[in-house]
Amino acid sequence: MSGIRYDWQQAEIRAIYDQPLLELIYQAASIHRQYHDSTKIQVCKLISIKTGGCPEDCSYCAQSSRYKTEVKPQALLEKETVVSIAQTAKQQGVSRVCMGAAWREVRDNSQFETVLEMVREVTDMGLEVCCTLGMLTTDQAKRLEAAGLYAYNHNLDTSQEYYSTIITTRTYGDRLHTIDNVRQTNVTVCSGGILGLGETVDDRIGMLHTLSNLQPHPESVPINILSQVPGTPLENQPDVPIWDIVRMIATARILMPVSDVRLSAGRARLSQVEQALCFMAGANSIFSSDDNKMLTVTTPCPDYNADREMLNLLGLEMRPPSQRPEKVVSPAVVG
What we know:
Layout: H1 10-17, H2 21-35, E1 40-50, H3 79-91, E2 96-101, H4 110-123, E3 128-132, H5 138-146, E4 151-153, H6 160-166, H7 172-182, E5 188-190, E6 193-195, H8 201-212, E7 220-225, H9 242-255, E8 260-263, H10 272-280, E9 285-288, H11 304-314, E10 317-318
Helix pairs in contact: 1-8, 2-9, 3-4, 5-7
């Protein structure tokens, strides 16, 4: 299998996903090596620049104002605070800093101006900067681009069919529209989903079908594992088996060979051996931390020292931001 396709059919994707596990991992690992340096892992840092108080009803989210969780609403961080966190992260080998704000959508106000300043200053440090700020317009995407933004994250979360079970305050089409707005710029797209929402395998296949038929594919595809947050509707969901996680990573790698597949939220509960399986299956990015949390206190995250020890053990290196260009273009397969 070679080249990039944008015409995957759901039956094809299901056949890949259902292969014997070791064969699936082998295929994914082989494709990974065609397009990526398998010795490099990008280490990212996620900063919650504005926490809690979100008006949306995402059933998994600790930051929704509709649920009573450990997360307390906080105002937008000072620019200097964000820059300081980014500087510490860079010293630890992080090459990508992601800034998340618990907003439904971006508004053209002083807070957005502050975010643009954050993007400029952290970009000037030589880091890739990603933002996840909710829905945004084409004009706002262009302003982020002008500030130096490298990537915009807007996850699909799950399949179009299952989506309304998890979220009612915006539509699947709203999410795709924001991705389209980002595509009007040179900002790269980061879009993936969450495992463990109560979805079926068909829902997982449906989400991968949507992502793999976007042209171009998202440059980043995060695979998140649900962190069950007390106080949210999904607090009693069972853990996702490691084999399901590996299958999703491997299938995503085969469908979207050039994309970075990011082992994201929920990694803290995986052992080093389980994480090694994920890397073998094609994951080439992780989120690390200085405070053992990924975004909020409800999502544990390994710290820099633990991750450095694991990467050293596996013979893996931290990928610098200059390792790859912003966009990699490969010829599409015709027919």
